[in-house]
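Can't paste images in this forum, so I'm doing it all in text. The chain is below; anyone willing to post the predicted structure tokens underneath?
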Amino acid sequence: MFLLKKLVVTLFVSILMLSSAQAFEPAESEQTLTNVIDLNAQTIAAMKAGESAETVAALLKATKQSSKSVVISGPADLNKQRGGMALRKSRRAFRDGDLEKAIELATDAINYYKKAQSIAFVK
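Text version of the structure:
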């Protein structure tokens, strides 16, 4: 009986995972990555312009959320992950009040995202 319950739960979870998986077209991922780069550039511009902390924090959060929806694999994914880590560190530095470090890390994130874009979407 225990094995039957375990089998049913496993089958149920597998079906849920398959039904929730979305098929992304490369064009969608490329456009999303371009949007992430643009949002990050806006964030850097806002930091340099001295915008309010709430505005910059919202931009950083929006950039991070957008980067999560980019679906790429291989070496490009590694660069995407590094960009995400740099963005997370930038957000932390901004919250701690170190604006120069936050700008530097956000710039690093843009470079990682651009590198991921060039690797994944070679034309």
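The chain has one domain: 29-120. The two ends are 55 Å apart (CA to CA).
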